[in-house]
Amino acid sequence: MIVVTGATGQLGRLVVEGLLKKVPPAEIVAAVRDPRKADGFAARGVQVRTADYDDPATLAAAFDGADKVLLISSSTPGVRVAQHTAAVTAAREAGVGHLAYTSILAADTSRLLLAAEHKATEEVIRESGVPFTFLRNGWYTENYEQTVAQALASGSFTGSAGEGRLGGVPRLDYAEAAVAVLTGEGHLGQVYELAGDEPWSYADLAAAIAAAAGKPVSYEDVPAEQHRQLLLGFGLPEPLAAMLVDADRGIADGELASASGDLRRLIGRPTTPLADAVAALVKN
């Protein structure tokens, strides 16, 4: 039995859909905070169980009888380590034989603000003794949905990544990698650095938007502090603005790209090209 936490989230839904193509629905558990949001999966024969990272009792029940668990990282910064620790403890007590965790690129060495909680979670998993696989996901192209909308409306967008390049690809690529690990063999103890085959810059992103929309689009690079002030001016909370500026710093430093080829090998195909990913965002 395979349990997917956060199964009604943006990544989790894609993973469950991928699993449904490979294993019987009765062997899949969609572990979610609100079971009502998983009614569609239940109607297709997927087991739906309540699982709240803040309620360890629900995690124990959700993982009961599980052979494999995909622990999709919490979306709540600041409390992730405690939440993930509760899930890891529940997995160990349930006798789970394989715990896959969605981490971040180079979690053990990255200077990204987002990386610290992932590094700490990886350490908790290693110390738990539960057999694991770390899926160190890079950036999602969907992270730039608002950027694309802004560019379409104004003809430009702003950032502070300079000429840095990142290996961003759609969530579906990462979901397919998770499905491959959950349904395949030889992944125990592996740490996969997952990123696109062809890293791209914000200038490349602007060009891709322009090509998809058939209109000129430019990228304006500004100093980090000016970028932060612009984001605050748009009404973003200070922590989110700081995270986005730090992400651009990481892109400039090459922290969101990887030449490992792990993602391509896991999904058995080339990763989705930037042009295709952006075209999908433009259509939306």
UniProtKB/TrEMBL annotation:
NmrA-like domain sequence ranges: 2-243
A Pfam family: NmrA
Signal peptide: none
Tree of life domain: Bacteria
Enzyme Commission number(s) from the entry: 1.6.5.2
Molecular-function GO terms, alphabetical: NAD(P)H dehydrogenase (quinone) activity
Alphabetized Gene3D superfamilies for the sequence: NAD(P)-binding Rossmann-like Domain, UDP-galactose 4-epimerase, domain 1
Coiled coil: none
Enzyme class at the top of the EC tree: oxidoreductase
InterPro entries tied to this protein: NAD(P)-bd_dom_sf, NmrA-like, NmrA-type_oxidoreductase
Keywords: Oxidoreductase
CDD domains registered for this protein in UniProt: TMR_SDR_a
The keyword Transferase is assigned to this record: no
Protein name stated in the entry: SDR family oxidoreductase
Organism: Amycolatopsis melonis
